[in-house]
Amino acid sequence: MAAEPAAEASPSPRFPKKTVRDLDVAGKRVLVRVDFNVPLEGEGAERRVADETRIEAALPTLSYLRDQRARLVIVSHLGRPKDRDPAFSMAPVAKRLAGLTGWDVRVASGVVGPAVESEALELGEGGVLVLENSRYEPGETKNDPDLAAGLARLADAYVNDAFGAAHRAHATTVGVAELLPSAAGFLLEKEVSVLGALLADPARPFVVVLGGAKVSDKIAVIERFLELADALLVGGAMCFSFFRALGHPTGDSLVEQEGVELAGRALELAKGSRCRLELPEDLVLGDRFDAAAETRAVDGVDVPDGWMGLDVGPRTAARYADEVAKAATAFWNGPMGAFELEPFAAGTRRVAEAMAACRGTTVVGGGDSAAAIARFGHADAVTHVSTGGGAALELLEGRELPGVEALDGRQ
Description:
single chain, Rossmann fold, six-stranded parallel sheet, 15% strand
């Protein structure tokens, strides 16, 4: 199917950097950093994209630039290849981009170098060249200035639309941005503006749901939301660090030892906060992490030996869902349990349904929660689903994102 023209006409008043609207790109080559780090399936020449969500998220920016008669040079990383492993080639991604848009999409012979420079120069108006995996170059993650200079020779301007990589100071996100006229794409602008609004002046009640495995990954976000939110609802394996800190037995549940002390600190902070920190009141247990496990529901949070907590219980799920559905602003990051196993999916499903039913602003913070809301069929019913897990968390912690800071500011 052909890509729809981009309809991103109105700039966000919250976004401090230049965007694609500020660039004169007619007839020029534009290096566009996207996040095409997508899952692949199959082997060899049959490798194909298993989930095209991130490709679709970049289409408004790419379509807009083509409509402005730009020549596109697209760059992204893909996985963590060793050397130049062909299993991580961008060829299947370029093929899917062409299939989604109907564009003539070429794959470059490399990332930088004279041959790639010639290929970029040969592009006609609206032409699309996808560079090979940026992590084929060891200087990418080191923000190597020589690699950045090589990238800059491929284009006349630079656009970053890779929010999922904006928290990394790499050659394709920072180094090259400092060498060319630079701006943000529509996706990057939207992500920063929507997530930033959660910290600035959210409509109330503001309800935050946090799940996942590690308290250590989210302690800074927990502490930030204890200052900002009205209710902080905790689920997922991270709740067992809280229960251990409170003296409850956790059986064979996944408990991050470092997280126990951090959870205790969060509980102390919550005592002096206007925000309610809520923990599960019932659980669904399994005798092992398996879809065929023996299951057991418990009214309470004490987990006996030989059992592991794998989902919040039905009363907790109902309580959390009720809080979310009545919120004026709701933010969700992290599943409530092992939702990939059907016996332990109910808690996460209830939260996804509540996010869809909420009439306020609803934001899903990327990663597993984004996968969950898509799996349960509610991604289109929420205000925004973030494409960047780590970047979203760092932004919500109040940290600057190097890939955003490197862009040219508005005058």
